[in-house]
Amino acid sequence: MCNTKTVLSIIVARATNGTIGQGGKLPWHLPSDLARFKRITTGHPVVMGRATWESLPEAFQPLPERTNIVLTRQAGYQAEGAIVVPSFADACIAAMGTHGAEEVFIIGGGEIYREAMLLAQRIYLTLVHAQISGDTFFPTVPPESWAIRSIEPSKHWDPRDTHVTSFQMRERIMLP
Ligand SMILES: NC(=O)c1ccc[n+]([C@@H]2O[C@H](COP(=O)([O-])OP(=O)(O)OC[C@H]3O[C@@H](n4cnc5c(N)ncnc54)[C@H](OP(=O)(O)O)[C@@H]3O)[C@@H](O)[C@H]2O)c1
Question: Which numbered atom of ligand 1 lies nearest the CA of 110?
Fold first, then answer.
């Protein structure tokens, strides 16, 4: 999507049945996954939909130590501390030249992920081992198109986590 030197990566936590959100929020409390999200994305540009931006707690608007880029079709939308753009192409332009732009992270939510699945090369996937009701979903990642590069069982478990998780990093299989 951006240029040949940039890896476009999705980072998402997904329940067994595909749920990623409910009522504009995350339907779980997973400090271990928030820590992993921070570790992976810090120092890189993060791209998110307007709804996900609005779901961030005030203290994390913007997410610190990351260039925050917010997608919206609303002219004149204000997101203090973030760059507001009207398209993925403009998100790329905004990310280029910023710190850590060799890897750009798509951080949600459902609408943005659906569009980014066609563009991304890498997925950092936290599997939440539960069926959870919700209103926002992430698709199944087809194994024939996305090779597993690493798997991590829930070794970084936090006693405050509401669910068991595991973690996969996958890369798109490029046809020769
Ligand atoms: N589990 C996870 O890892 C995870 C991660 C992030 C978010 N979430 C959850 O996901 C939910 C939010 O997801 P969502 O699908 O409702 O909303 P979203 O994807 O965060 O944002 C959707 C908005 O983005 C803008 N947009 C979408 N495509 C665009 C494009 N091509 N160009 C410009 N603007 C575009 C539009 O904003 P306008 O309407 O302003 O035009 C649209 O309404 C929340 O429940 C949140 O907690 C979960």
Answer: 15
Tokens of 91: 């998100």
Name the residue of 73, 87, 165 whose CB sits within 8 Å of the most ligand 1 atoms, as the mutation to test its pocket.
73
Residues 23-47 pLDDT 10s: 999 999 999 999 999 999 999 999 9
Band (1; pLDDT cuts 50, 70, 90): low
- Report cis status (omega within 30 of 0) of the bond before 139: no
Q: What are phi and psi of 39, to 5 degrees?
A: -60, -40
27 Cβ inside 6 Å of ligand 1? no
Question: Which domains are delineated in the chain?
Answer: 7-172 (3.40.430.10)
Question: Measured in angstroms, how far is the CA atom of residue 86 from the centroid of ligand 1?
Answer: 13
Ligand 1 near 136 CB (within 6 A): yes
Does ligand 1 come within 6 angstroms of the Cβ of 114? no
